[in-house]
Amino acid sequence: MSNVTKEFIVGIPKAELHVHLEGTLEPELKLELAKKNGIDIGQKTIEEVRQSYEFDSLTSFLGVYYPAMEVLQKEEDFYLLAMDYLKKAKDNNVKYAELFFDPQAHTSRGVPFADVINGYYRAAKDGVALGVESHLIMCFLRDMSQESAIETYEQMLPYGDKIIGIGLDSDERKNPPKKFADVFARAKEDGFNITMHCDIDQENSIEHIRQALLEIGVQRIDHGTNILEDAKLVEYAKENGIGFTCCPVSNSFVTEDMKGKEILELLHKGLKVTVNSDDPAYFQSYISDDMYVLATKYNLEKKDIIQLAKNSFEIAWIPAEKKNEYIDQIDAYVENL
Ligand SMILES: [Zn+2]
């Protein structure tokens, strides 16, 4: 039996490093924005929207996920979406967050890049007053071309100071990391932090992880527990302090289980594993819920939760002094219990 309570998990200071802003669109806000922007989404009640959030694979999830974004039209809409998440983050004692966003999902339907980035960035700044510091990570959609990624990268450059890193997400099938080698090489050269999704149990998962680590040179992998298939890569990730942003509840929606055994194995091997919510509105699970369900199903001990929380700051893209400040907050929390 796990000795960890939900209260302990909610209270511990933590960072969230794998959450897609577009995946935080709760039914309430979706309906509100649809009404405001005069968009017929085919659903009239929260219950109807909730029922549309149903899927059993990554592909079926993405089939619901991208059309839902139609309600996001104006700068203000992006602001409201991010603020909605930041309030939830505060409730979960998330002190720091790195927020993924997918500009191509918006620019491809005619929304100006500036409205997306300015809305999200304004929310990130206002979040500080709530006690949540945050930065933005711009992701490319991997089912689109590298040319489109480069075009998006160049649209972003005038706003480069509003972004902390570059990521890669969406449908991994037949879209390996090396498809985007050029644009990631450029991002690295320009000084951006880089990460990539390596989703669970994909075709060629381990080869994609190898490419991400050894050819692209990512600092983190989003998901990535399939690394356990190759002991040498595990060793490499450990030696190089590679971060893993795991999302157990999300895993349980798109594969047969939450990969708790793998997450714990990596954690106990000393890899920088973290637990995150991914798309919390769709999976109805925010970061503390993810940590709690993992803790109860896999008998985590308090020290595991403390380690997960410390890892989340250690692999965050913030200066060392800042990391130490947050880690001191964890120690103070544990001591004062
Ligand atoms: Zn994700």
TrEMBL record:
Its EC number(s): 3.5.4.2
Domain Adenosine deaminase: start-end pairs: 13-332
GO biological process: adenine catabolic process; hypoxanthine salvage; nucleotide metabolic process
Signal sequence coordinates: none
Catalytic activity: adenine + H2O + H(+) = hypoxanthine + NH4(+)
Binding site for Zn(2+): H18, H20, H197, D278
Record's cofactor remark: Binds 1 zinc ion per subunit.
Domain of life of the organism encoding this protein: Bacteria
Known cofactor(s): Zn(2+)
InterPro entries for the chain: A_deaminase_dom (IPR001365), ADE (IPR028892), Ado/ade_deaminase (IPR006330), Metal_Hydrolase (IPR032466)
Keywords assigned by UniProt, alphabetized: Hydrolase, Metal-binding, Nucleotide metabolism, Zinc
Transmembrane segment boundaries: none
Top-level EC class as recorded in UniProt: hydrolase
The keyword Lipoprotein belongs to this UniProt entry's keyword annotation: no
Single GO cellular component term: cytosol
Pfam families from the UniProt entry: A_deaminase
Residues noted as binding substrate in the record, renumbered to the chain: D279
Swiss-Prot/TrEMBL site (Important for catalytic activity) positions: H223
Function: Catalyzes the hydrolytic deamination of adenine to hypoxanthine. Plays an important role in the purine salvage pathway and in nitrogen catabolism.
Family membership noted in the UniProt record: Belongs to the metallo-dependent hydrolases superfamily. Adenosine and AMP deaminases family. Adenine deaminase type 2 subfamily.
The protein, known as: Adenine deaminase
